[in-house]
Task: structure prediction
Amino acid sequence: MRKAEKVIITTAVTGSVHVPSQSPHLPLSASEVAESALAAVEAGSAIVHLHARLPDGRPTADPEVFEEIVQTVTARTDAVINITTGGSSAMTMEERLAAPLRLRPELASLNMGSMNFVYAGIADKVTSWRHDWEKPYVLDTYSAPFVNTFASIEHTLRTLGEFGTRFEYECYDIGHLYSLAHFVEAGLAEPPLLIQGVFGVLGGIGADHANLQHMVHIADKLFGDDYSFSAFAAGRDQLRFGTHSAWLGGHVRVGLEDSLWLGRGRLAETNAQQVEKIRAAVEDLGKQIATPDEARKVLALRGAGTR
Result:
């Protein structure tokens, strides 16, 4: 692993997993997502990882909604924009790529394999639904896989790579590291890599700290110091895994996409609250926080304002 001189904080602002019935604080409209992203940057986040939703909270791939978010954020900050290519398992690959193809971000997420990505358990915890679409949406994940074929990964690397977009390689299991190594060997994924270890999603690797250390160990064997590492765990383990990643020399990700909580029994009201909490933990380790331009240098991004 390329040890972090300064820790990059990524904020995943809204995602496509959580539904409005789980929290009144989840950003939904384009303006809410943009304002929440801006507050996270003000709190110390160098990167904002963006999904889009309709005003009722339904995830959307509509490029116009993404463009409204991105224009607001880039007009008021120099943060690195990271647009999802994951979208949701209910979207086609064409839909998932529509926004990044139009907006040509510096950075885009890329899921490194098909998997069971199950959050149907949300239905067991919600007692009152705000919208008719929510319950079927989460329950469908129990029977429908999240498809990311090698063909679709290669297509994404080639098409977005033409614009100079680089990638946050989301690895939900050890096998995803080997998939990434395949694309590195093929010359399609170019170092320095940003590997995002994802823990605690049902269907992926569990939120066990031994798994985090094992993922770093295997990544070291495969990629040497040609990669930077970041990690997060879904739900209650978010802060602990971010702190562990920073302690190992990696970077961190927080945000309401990954966890709705600020502490036991306490919903986070903003993404900025989570940024402030992980920033304090990182600084308690004696580490400094990276600015957006420092993150660009580490990740070899092309720079703000270029497409």
